[in-house]
Amino acid sequence: MITAAALAALAVACALGAWRFTTARWTSRSPRVAILLWQSLGVTWGLATTGAMLAYAVQPYEVGVLPGLLAFAQGMAPGEPWDLAHLLAMVAGITCLTVLVVVLLTAGVQALRARRRHRALLALISHDNPVLPGVRVLDHPSAAAYCVPGLRSQVVVSEGALKLLSEDELTAVLAHEAAHVRERHDLVLLPFAALRRALPWSKVVSDAQSQVELLVEMAADDRARRYCSPRRLATALLRFGTAGAMPTPQGMISLHAHHVMARVDRLIKPDPDLAPGLRYMLLACSVTLVTSASLLWVYQL
């Protein structure tokens, strides 16, 4: 019972933490740390929510969640007789865990299929450019720049973008998209998109997804700043924002117009980085959250 209560308290703490985190102002100063904290909150909430129900369900076995589930699957008799409350908790816990896993897998499969279809389409409507090695040029008059993530990742720009941007601005945009590919931001975004599908009514989940999308763009901006002028990237963002850029294909990551001014202001007038002590404290908090939930699945209190 203590394990179930601890997991329930951890789930509530993560939900409250996520609610408060949506209004945090320090995240733009260290987007990678903020992304890690968001990930740890999401993983811990999922483990704690389902774990609380399952911990109560396997209480008659007087062991942890995982050993109890294993004993249940093997048909072992518990030390105490089952009652309706424990059986209902088992059904609810397994159902919630299954829904979360299935939604995540479904989102992943749909993204893979969309990228496979888009790669086939790119082979027909795009071409290589000797001036831009490794970049596919899309035969479209509207401005577009995005990446197709995966094992065979591609960076794509449109003819409209080539005409819209100067050489330095194009370099900044390509560096931004290459950062998305290198840091596999598609995998960062996938769980939040899946959770949004599982809980479409939750404003906290919606805000969390929006926050992570912005943080991913800021992280890519930071990587791009190593190879180009921040002002060039800022002017490229403004050009895309005012030129009516074409929508990004499903499953891709693009330099889109959302939160343009927040990113432009950050590039032109950057805030100081987080103090090392605060950064390490946030990283330790992230690790502690996930570790605590994982240990409570294995051991009984």
From TrEMBL:
Alphabetical UniProt keywords: Hydrolase, Membrane, Metal-binding, Metalloprotease, Protease, Transmembrane, Transmembrane helix, Zinc
Named cofactor requirement(s): Zn(2+)
InterPro entries tied to this protein: Beta-lactam_resp_regulator, Peptidase_M48
Domain Peptidase M48 as annotated: residue spans: 114-192
Presence of the UniProt keyword Transmembrane in the record: yes
Transmembrane stretches, start-end: 36-56, 85-109, 278-299
Name of the protein in question: Integral membrane protein
